[in-house]
Amino acid sequence: MVAFYNKRAAVENLIKESNNDIGLKAHPSGQWAMNANHFRLSMIAYNLSCWLELFERDESLTVPELTHRTVATTRFRLVYLAAKITRHGGHTEIRFGSQYPKRDRFDQLMARLRSIEPKMDGFIPVVNTPIRA
Question: Which long-range CB contacts under 8 A does 103-107 form with residues at least 24 apart?
Answer without folding.
Answer: 105/56, 106/78, 106/81
